[in-house]
Protein 1
Amino acid sequence: MVSSNPIFKHQALQLLEKCNTVHSFKQVHAQAITNALVIHTYPLSRLLLLSSTLAFSYALSIFNQIPNPTVFLYNTFISSSTHNASLALFVYNKILTHQDHTLKPNVFTYPSLFKACGFPPWLNHGRALHAHVLKFLQPPYDHFVQASLINFYANSGKLGVARYLFSQISKPDLPTWNSILGAYARCPTSTASSLGAIYSGDSDSNRCIEVLWLFKEMQKSPVKPNELTLVAVISACANLGAFSQGAWAHAYVTKCNLKLNRFVGTGLIDMYSKCGFIDFAYQLFEKMPQKDTLCYNAMIGGFGMHGYGYKALHLYEKMKSEGFVPDDITFVVVMRACSHVGLLEDGCRIFESIKEYYRIEPKQEHYGCLVDLLGRAGRLKEAEEEIRKMPMQPNAVLWRSLLGAARVHGNLEIGEMALKHLLRLEPETSGNYVLLSNIYASIHRWGDVKRIRKLMKDQGVDKMPGSSLVEVNGIMHEFFTGDRTHPYTKEIYGKLEEINTRLQEYGHKPRTKQVLFDIEEEEKEDALSYHSERLAIAFAFVVSNSNLPIRIIKNLRVCVDCHAITKLLSTIYRREIVVRDRNRFHHFKGGTCSCVDYW
Ligand code: ZN
Ligand code: ZN
């Protein structure tokens, strides 16, 4: 047994834990050789694991000198090479081709292999390994193997396969539950933990609803959720804007004595700010026992999303003064916060500091923020120059932000140039075609308009359907453009007629003329086909008479018309309306919006 074998307590092994340089490691390794520890499996596995964290080539040389490695040693080595799929597979292949045919991969071999193959160039290898699991292991399969398979398929975007594998398990344990919940929560993720995914609009509500549904199922089983489970649930609530469920999850954490660790805490901060309760987010942030960069990123991002540029900047300074080092995401969230309120100089200063002070090479996302900052301030030429000066190939996001700026400032020349780049990079995105055709229409190039429309049709490009979620009495209701499926359809459309009359009394004229550079991601709105947020607002007016703000989450950018109307509605009906669109929050109150019509 572990405790009774003197080898396990050998002084050299205890010293091993203290090694933090290759030099000290080599000294202990020498001791292990002279004391003949290296003929035993356990000390060898310790040596392998530790050396792989210090110098991988050294670990490889130790492994190559083992005359007849056991499967345990192979597994140890594979588990320490999960960052290098080609090496992990190379070692795995050695097990398969070993002369001693009694050597076979076992349940501990596969989880690390699936982890190593969880990235694009290796996905096919992962699928081949699944076949090996079926060949070499006997059912019922080990839970860790199952969980790693579910993770693998989820990471490679095959959520359906992951779900099928999950359904094959009769009594899932905690790691397996967490795998499937995490898989669904991760797919539409937009927490501040992944660069580029921040504020991304593809929060697929169905997947988030699935997380909540699965969690309900889990509660019927004897398995108790842990912190990791709640992180998945909270992130689903954040994306759905499901405040009641999210607050319930927070209460659950407290009631079940789960730890308010950095992941749970950050998730809750993100959830409260995405649900529109920035004050709750800040209260929790203040109470967090141990703050770190992750936590600060979520809070700075929250302030930015709500248009509190100065608060975001202040927190960024505080974070630095408390000794936390900003990471890639910090720079993105703080620069976006500046951008949302037009703090040009502060934003540019932060961009400069990435390179000058932190000695980090700025990434696409950081250039994107800079272009956005300059573009919004009307410095289009400078923005264009920055794109051209970039050391890497500019991506579609950059050209789109330049285009957006060209639209706001009516610069046809730069707009057309940005569009051409956009269409080359993203031939399948409908918004780009619509934009180009609108520009041509504005300068009466009707032949080009026709050509673009035809191109769009030929390529089968469709517009993205707009959808809005609204929470009433703890229940989420979803509406699509022109939706007539809701049980309250009759009342909703009745209310819309009343709303239209009131809007006319207030002098509102629906915009029918195509305006120059109008970015509309959705089909034009008319009396038969209202945009989803309007249906959601009408529904909220029908069913709730309280004075509480109406909170709406929309998957696309709010259009100019809906924005104007919502401002009016907030004053006509004396009701605060909070809309989270793809980019930011709009707090409509007393006829104005917190974005100051700049979004
Ligand atoms: Zn609209
Ligand atoms: Zn607004």
Protein 2
Amino acid sequence: MKRILSGVQPTGNLHLGNYLGAIRNWVALQRDYECFFMLADLHAITVPQEADKLRQHVRETAAAYIACGIDPEKSAIFPQSSISGHAELMWILSCHTPLGWLNRMTQFKEKAGKDKENAVLGLYSYPVLMAADIILYKATHVPVGHDQKQHVELTRDIAGAFNRYYKTEFFPLPEPVIMGEAARVMSLRDGKKKMSKSDESDYSRINLTDDADTIALKFRKAKSDMIEGISYDAEARPEVSNLLNLYASFRGITREQALAECEGKNNSAFKQMLTDVAVAHLSPITSKMRELLKETDYLDKVLARGVARAHAVADQTLKEVKELAGFLNLKH
Ligand code: TYM
């Protein structure tokens, strides 16, 4: 059976990278796969969070999933922290993960920066939790943006190490699924940096909660260059190339087709074209999200149903893993 697990950290400021790089692809895939989409709140606390805000962001992210087109009748939507198996399996997997593998993870190096001595253990061991998230559901496919590819590859290595150790084929090796022209959405202020929730400048990203005027303003102010016309060259014209990828992604066309559509346009005319497609695409999502956020009871019911479905699969996997590991299964 083909099964998907993926998730977003509920840390607020859900942006175009999360949408075009991940959530939109989930929507397309949910027809053909059994899907588990979690709110990665255990991952969120690798950096400081306020409890009330985290709770609010979990609901907000769930609302975003549904507003973007995830069907809660079809796919399970649930908070990661509601299934204790994630943390339990992480411990077992961490006993099969050499430190050398974690030392290669580029995201830890970026996030910890120069002050590695003071970085918390959770930030370092986070990829092992991500591996547990995925293989707890025996997921075969993991749709993510490009920045998470290395973590999914590590998951394959960890699952392989577990299988070899216990001489079994218990865990399938999951495939990363990276789709479309927007797998790496870059900051609107610096085309060499990825668009991110934590960037201090709100002008660096389009949030899923931005209204039409804000989107227009952010694209107008987006960095571009002095070269005439629109062309694709990720090295020499990173900002314009990023905007072109966004345009292609919103229109659902290839980069070449996008180039043909904006031939002869100058930067500001192209930015207007991009604003028009972005607003047409995003405004129904934004208004649906606003409506859903008023319906806390509905959202909580969706999450409770998601938790029940996730439990059914996760508990079975964990039971079998504990048997393999040699833990007693006592009745209480
Ligand atoms: P997170 O919350 O950073 O991002 C959620 C999803 O959005 C994608 N993404 C982007 N795609 C393109 N361009 C960008 N600028 C951009 N920024 C973010 C990410 O690749 C991701 O798919 N560790 C994960 C959450 C997670 C997870 C998992 C994902 C926890 N466990 C298991 C898959 C499977 C994270 O921090 O994503």
